[in-house]
């Protein structure tokens, strides 16, 4: 029964990882690709690691550490990639309505009133 639960977690993780890959192919610009890949791959990796914990209970502590590492590093790396793409002026899709960083950049560049 434990192996079945582990297999279900691994299968669910594989589905999320597949959707992350599909998101990389289907999304229109770099920013949405980064977002789609990060969210789905974070959850997919976590589910696969939880499934492995059911198969190998002695590895549970190490797998929890790896899950923590994934939870910390994936969003940070995604943010760094997105910021770097924005700084080199990677174009956004035409359906993008607002560019919050451009508005923030304009506010920072405006002269300060005393």
TrEMBL record:
Keywords: Membrane, Transmembrane, Transmembrane helix
Domain of life the protein comes from: Bacteria
Transmembrane regions listed in the UniProt entry: 6-25
InterPro entries reported in the protein's UniProt record: PhaG_MnhG_YufB
GO MF term set: sodium:proton antiporter activity
Listed name of the protein: Monovalent cation/H(+) antiporter subunit G
Organism: Paraburkholderia panacisoli
């Amino acid at each position: 029964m434990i192996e079945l639960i582990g297999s279900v977690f691994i299968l669910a993780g594989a589905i999320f990882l597949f959707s992350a890959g599909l998101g990389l192919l289907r999304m229109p610009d770099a920013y949405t690709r980064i977002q789609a890949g990060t969210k789905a791959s974070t959850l997919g990796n976590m589910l696969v690691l939880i499934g492995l914990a059911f198969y190998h209970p002695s590895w549970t502590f190490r797998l929890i550490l790896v899950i923590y590492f994934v939870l910390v590093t994936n969003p940070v790396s995604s943010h760094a990639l997105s910021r770097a793409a924005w700084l080199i002026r990677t174009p956004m899709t035409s359906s993008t309505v607002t560019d919050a960083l451009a508005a923030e950049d304009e506010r920072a560049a405006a002269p300060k009133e005393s």
